[in-house]
Amino acid sequence: MTKMNPIGWFDIYVNDLARAVAFYETVFGYKLEEIVDPTGDSQMMSFPADMGNYGAGGALTKSKHASPGVGGTIVYFSVEDCAVEQAKIEGAGGIVIRPKFSIGEFGWITLCQDTEGNLFGLNSLK
What we know:
By secondary structure, the chain is an alpha/beta fold. It has a single domain, classed as 2,3-Dihydroxybiphenyl 1,2-Dioxygenase, domain 1, CATH 3.10.180.10. Helices cover 16% and strands 36% of the residues. It contains 2 helices and 8 strands. It starts with 8 loop residues before the first strand and ends with a strand.
């Protein structure tokens, strides 16, 4: 059996899908793509992912079954240097909660809040 990473997918719940998409596309510089929910219960915009590789794919999700907010699970986005994306957060409508800080041998972290109130992190090795 192939050993897999423990996370296979994530949803970041939002209230205003268009606003959230604009925020994440501005901060990370990539295009999110629509995913059709076959149940019709949710609207979803997917982050770029190759599901054949290790790591997790995920989407911004608007659903009547869950809502955004601080205090739950934190998703950490892997980036080359946290400072680059951190510099874009406030201009895109978000908040830098804790600027780039060292986590020792594991690199660097920045904690942020998106336009929907979700806490998320940036993680880099430099």
